[in-house]
Write a structure and sequence with these properties.
Layout lengths: L23 E6 L6 H8 L2 H4 L3 E6 L3 H10 L4 E5 L2 H7 L8 E6 L2 E2 L1 E6 H10 L1 H5 L4 H15 L5 E4 L5 H12 L9 E4 L5 H7 L4 E5 L2 H7 L3 E6 H4 L6 E6 H6 L1 H18 L5 H8 L9 H8 L2 E2 L8 E2 L4 E2 L10 H13 L9 H8 L2 H11 L18 E3 L6 E3 L15 H6 L10 H7 L2
Parallel strand pairs: 1-2, 1-3, 7-8, 7-9
Antiparallel strand pairs: 3-11, 4-11, 5-14, 6-9, 6-10, 12-13, 15-16
């Protein structure tokens, strides 16, 4: 029989604030639709239900959130899924052990290009330009033509070096034979500024979250080529990130945060609530974008071009379904492989050990159990095997998970990360596979 955790015993439960190390918390977010769990937990009283007085701080960049959590100015925040890994490693200037015990969502990004670039793609390969799964072929023809003519490389933006956006853009480019480190120029721009830079011609395209693809399309500035869902079905996107030291000093407060966000995610994923979610997010203090633009992806549709009807894409934003809130350690290992593939990580590390330090399904399970929610009992799963929804049986009760196909048909086994890296011809690895194999047998 499982013993009752101390914090659930009478007099220690977090509800109403009892047993919490602190009740006032400050959480940062970036104006994107996937800040929804934090916003809804605040607006619908889920934080308060679990004894927390939350203050949400709208930040201008991912670096701001990282720096403020690092310095203790924020208790935690809306983070890109690889950010806690990078901060734990000390990649990108700051080093501090950081953990993620909750995934905030799946999918939610897309790759959008300027109308001028799309026109050139359509001129060189109209069939590929019109077909999302083949659009990268048309882009490669533009790049090859530009090289031959001696033109400057195209410039694409992502939101942060250690981001799903960077890795999805690179994965897509490389799958089409485009070397992201040699054939194009990559820059970092905060999400709300992407449309402005695309409109001014300073960049040719970008990978960003919503509503900043829909905004470019709605204003006639850009055309979306492909969503991240179409690159890797139901990929991880954002997490709740906190300093490990903070979590160890505030275990009950952290658990209350997780519980509030779990309930918020469950509420968001009820279809009848999505319109209200979009209306709340559209407010000036949150995403500050037209409600109709925010609703586009939130209600299960997506418009790729201004003169076309929205296409159904029901899984573009997933917040609770498919065990979306669970911090899979296999996801963490995949991100680490990308850090190696593209030369960001230059020392051999034990990838599974690192994933287990940063991604904390043990803490997730405590919160989910307290709420009576089902949860996976495994920490890892193989990615890329399922073209249809499937049933996860390594769970407290069978759970339906979504498709997980990669654009190139590949599969990923987190228990064999070095074998996975070996299959890619296009890479910028700075560590040999032999070195990696020594610490990842």
């Amino acid at each position: 029989m499982t013993s009752v955790p101390q914090w659930l015993r009478p007099g220690v439960h977090a509800a109403g604030g009892e047993g919490l190390e602190k009740t006032q918390i400050d959480l940062g977010f970036i104006p994107l639709t996937d800040c929804a769990p934090l916003v809804i937990a605040y607006e619908k009283g889920f934080f308060r239900k679990h004894g927390l007085e939350a203050r949400l701080s709208r930040e201008v960049s991912w670096a701001n959130i990282r720096d403020k959590v690092f310095a203790g100015l924020l208790d935690g925040g809306h983070m890109l899924a690889p950010m806690p890994i990078a901060t734990t490693l000390g990649l990108g200037e700051l080093k501090k052990p950081t953990i993620a015990a909750l995934s905030l969502d799946l999918n939610g990004n897309a790759i959008t290009v300027s109308l001028d670039l799309y026109r050139r793609m359509a001129e060189l390969d109209p069939a590929a330009a019109a077909e999302r799964s083949m659009s990268v072929r048309a882009l490669k023809k533009v790049i090859d033509t530009g090289k031959h003519a001696g033109r400057e490389p195209l410039c694409f933006a992502t939101v942060f070096p250690f981001s799903p956006h960077n890795y999805m853009l690179r994965y897509w480019l490389a799958a089409g034979g485009i070397d992201p480190d040699r054939d194009v120029r990559l820059v970092v721009i905060p999400p709300p500024h992407m449309v402005k830079y695309l409109s001014s011609g300073e960049i040719d395209g970008y990978c960003v979250g919503e509503p900043w693809n829909a905004q470019a399309v709605a204003t006639g500035v850009g055309r979306t080529l492909i969503t991240d869902y179409e690159i890797w079905n139901n990929k991880p996107e954002k997490v709740l990130g906190v300093n490990r030291e903070w979590a160890e000093q505030h275990p009950n407060t952290h658990r209350a945060m997780l519980m509030a966000l779990l309930e918020a995610a469950q509420w968001i994923d009820q279809p009848e609530n999505r319109i209200e979610v979009a209306d709340i997010l559209a407010r000036e203090e949150y995403v500050n974008a037209p409600a109709d633009v925010v609703k586009m992806s939130m209600v299960g549709s997506f418009r790729y071009q201004v003169d076309a009807a929205p296409a159904p894409l029901p899984d573009f934003n997933v917040f609770f379904r498919y065990a979306a809130t669970f911090p899979w350690r296999s996801h963490a290992v995949w991100f680490i492989t990308q850090m190696y593939r593209w030369g960001q990580l230059r020392d051999p590390v034990d990838m599974r050990k690192l994933a287990e330090e940063v991604y904390r399904p043990d803490l997730y399970r405590e919160a989910a159990q307290a709420l009576g929610l089902p949860f996976p009992t495994a920490d890892y799963k193989i990615e890329g095997q399922h073209g249809e929804p499937w049933t996860l049986r390594e769970a407290t009760e069978p759970m339906t998970l979504g498709t997980d196909r990669f654009l190139d048909g590949g599969t990923f086994d987190a228990l064999r990360p070095v074998d996975y890296l070996e299959r890619f011809e296009l890479h910028n690895r700075q560590v040999s596979l032999d070195e990696l194999a020594k610490v990842n047998p």
